[in-house]
Amino acid sequence: MTERKVLAEFPYELKPVEKGYNRRTLYINLSTKAIESRPVTDLMIDKFVGGKGFDLYLMWHSVKDTTRWNDPENEICIAFGPLCGNTNYPGSGKSIVTTISPLTDIPIDCNVGGHFGPYAKFSGWDAIEIQGKSEEEIIVFIDGDKGIVQILSAPDEEINSHILAERLIAEFADNPNGYQYVSVVSSGKAAEYVPISCLNFSFWDKRRKVARLKQAGRGGTGMVFRDKKIKALVVKYSGLKGDTNHPVDLETLQKTGLKLHKEIEEGDDKQNRMRQVGTAHLVEIMNDYDLLPIKNFKYGQMEEAKGLASWEFKKLFTQGLPDGCWFGCSLSCCKAVDNFIPRTGPYKGQKVTVDGPEYETVGGCGSNLCIWNARDVVELNFYCDTYGIDTISFGTSCAFAMECYEYGILNKERTGGLDLSWGNADSVFELIHQMGRGEGFGVIVGQGVHKMKEIFAREYGADPKLLQDIGMEAKGLEYSQYMSKESLAQQGGYTLALKGPQHDEAWLIFMDMVNNQIPTFEDKAEALHYFPMFRTWFGLQGLCKLPWNDIEPANNAETDEPAKVPEHVQNYIDIYTAITGRPLDKEELIRQSERVYNFQKVFCMRMGKGRRIDDIPPYRAVGPVTEEEYLSRKERYDKLLKEKQGIDPEGKSTQEKMALLRAYREDQYQQLVDAVYKRKGWTKEGIPTIEHLKSLGMDLPEVVEVVKRFL
Q1: Which residues lie below 8 Å from residue 250, measured CB to CB, with a gap of 6+?
Q2: Per-residue pLDDT reduced to its tens digit, 338-375
Q3: Which domain of life is it from (predicted)?
Q4: In this structure, how many other beta carbons lie within 10 angstroms of the beta carbon of residue 613?
Q5: How many CB atoms sit inside 10 A of residue 463's CB?
Q6: Could you tell me where the beta strands, DSSP code E, fall in 32-176?
Q7: Residues 6+ apart with CB under 8 A from 454
Q8: Predicted confidence (pLDDT) at residue 332 exceeds the cutoff of 90
Q9: What is the dihedral of CA 220, 226, 231, 235, to 10 degrees?
Q10: Is residue 1 predicted with pLDDT exceeding 70?
Q11: For the chain, which domains are there?
């Protein structure tokens, strides 16, 4: 066992959770080694609810306007929400991580599974707030059985997550039968070198006898973690029961959960087959609808994509095991490839268990790079996880570099000998291993798309306008893996998202493009109000989105608003009231989110982004940048010119038609932004009005002070 020095220790009183809350948070300062218990006030609960709301509230009061990601006062906050950890309703094991991002310079938030969040909550804390920087490598250990928090020395540890998590679980568990009561948060070696990094939250799979990993993936959380010299956060808690949240109405909670379990049992095989293939079921659907990202989002469909279809991953996923990342979730979407043997890198030839891949990883590390071999995608997934790299940012960044290689902006001399032609998996593997070693062109790609645009223009004379058009990032964050060219609402869903283009705020492609349910600007604006608010609510409560609409009641299509899955909305209202005892209806549910959402908007403004100028997409997300893109959908685009713009395309060159289409689409996007801002209660520059903040009860003096700077 590793010899560890106790650098600081904080005993605390163990108390039961009441109505979903502990009413205290854990503060740790790594610079001073201070550890404190801080109260959760009524204001925090009433206005910020929990989860992401608590994270943002704590960070707001700890950073300065000028704080950047590597300043000591930047924090990593992890909070859990009042519904987190209940084992009765599927999808209730989520943590929410926030920090000032090294990619975007504004708050990033990540919703992540695994056992850490529930165990930390039941150990006595509604949130964990980590500030300062350590001078030496450390581990933070929360012993929820004994009521002790320790900062421990962590010399000479293996850093990569799949090994580190297992070693620390073995070390901190009382015995092998107690492995499932320990959870680890870690990042890997690459997080020391590249900002496209993530955090891994573990859960012990007692059937496989391995530590499995879920990711707080977006925005560089891992780099902040490693900059603070944190090797790992470890929590131990063995007292879990069905009523550990101490709900007000356990009977309603159990009844509502059983109803959803029954829906999953009866409907999953007919709907999305989550228990067989997880979110990989989306690959063939996206390809069929011309929505699968291919060649840096140039195309949405290729015949070769069948090599990445869900049936190919089903052959690799171990079938028949309960695969939930928290107890009580029968959706079992966390698929794994067991006994996988990498063909490259430091773990070449060793058997490993790989979590996933999820759809986003298949899109980013597969189709967007024209890598059509499922096993190669699994291997990239494994190395991203253990090195601590976000698969979404990795895929989008590599795709951008490959397109620049195609245009001659990059060449072998500039890439250190790497051939970045489309589909060259060996070169992509070398990029990821360079990130893990902190060397070579991989470190350049690992800076992300925004930084690469600056480097390629400055160092290689690349056209900044072309780089802006094809560089799939906004606010500094890489796009996640859906084609938005033919869905105006999804263009807004991506680019108007507060943290940057991540689909967890709004995924409206089918409502907009396929089913034409939101035809007008006002319809789209209403959807871009409601769905970001509803999805924000999961991050306040400690919930997973998937049980909301990836399994639906059999009669959902017959309801007035099937896209909202109204029966499941009512389920969430019922379980919130059952746990907290607080009244809630569907209107107040949205208002809970609106308060925190507008607070986050003002927080972004305070840190230097968040106005209209920051809500501009790269044109690749809106329409065809190149002639080959236009010609690949020539019939569609010519028809649009005629029907939407009243322009006869006959006799016009492709460049002329592209210019006309671009002017139209960019104008459409700006009209959408006008409509969305109006619906959200913001000015034309995207600033929440003081009147709107008052209507929400979010006119706190410190919030109003920031808003007044911009009005």
Answers
A1: 88, 242, 243, 578
A2: 999 999 999 999 999 999 899 999 999 999 999 999 99
A3: Bacteria
A4: 9
A5: 12
A6: 34-39, 76-79, 95-100, 107-112, 127-131, 138-143, 148-153
A7: none
A8: no
A9: -40
A10: no
A11: 6-236 (3.60.9.10), 272-478 (1.10.569.10), 519-710 (1.10.599.10)
Q: What is the pLDDT of residues 572-590, one digit of tens each?
A: 999 999 999 999 999 999 9
Query: Residue 7: helix, strand or coil by DSSP?
Result: strand
Amino acid at 259: K
Cis check: omega of the bond before 357, within 30 degrees of 0: yes
Those residues with Cβ within 8 angstroms of residue 160's Cβ, 6 or more apart along the chain or in another chain: 188, 189, 386, 387, 388, 436
Q: How far is residue 324's CA from residue 320's CA, in Å, rounded to a whole number?
A: 12
Q: State residue 3's pLDDT score.
A: 85
Token couple for 517: 């349910």
Residue 231, SS3? strand
Alpha carbon separation from 699 to 47, 422, 703 (Å, rounded): 11, 51, 6
Helix, strand, coil % over all residues of the chain, rounded to 5: 45, 15, 40
Contact 420, 413 (CB under 8 A): no
**What string of H, E and C letters represents the secondary structure of 500-520?**
CCCCCCCCCHHHHHHCCCCCC
The pTM (predicted TM-score) of the whole model is 0.97
What is the CB-side half-sphere exposure of residue 485 using CA atoms within 13 A?
A: 29
pLDDT digits (tens, 9 = 90+) for 636-651: 999 999 999 999 999 9
Average pLDDT, whole number, for the chain?
96
In 3D, which of 484, 492, 502 has the Cα closest to residue 539?
Answer: 502
| Contact by Cβ (8 Å): 140, 151 | yes
Q: H or E element: which one contains 204?
A: strand 199-205
pLDDT tens digits, one per residue of 128-144: 999 999 999 999 999 99
pLDDT tens for each residue of 191-235: 999 999 999 999 999 999 999 999 999 999 999 999 999 999 999
SS3 (DSSP) at 153: strand
Question: Which string of DSSP letters, residue by residue, matches 535-580?
Answer: HHHHHHHT--SHHHHSS--TTGGGSS-GGG-HHHHHHHHHHHHHHH
User: What pLDDT, on a 0 to 100 scale, did the predictor assign at position 323?
Assistant: 87
Phi, psi (5° rounding) for residue 505?
A: -80, -45
- Sign of the dihedral through C-alpha 265, 271, 276, 280: negative
> How far is residue 329's CA from residue 607's CA, in Å, rounded to a whole number?
38
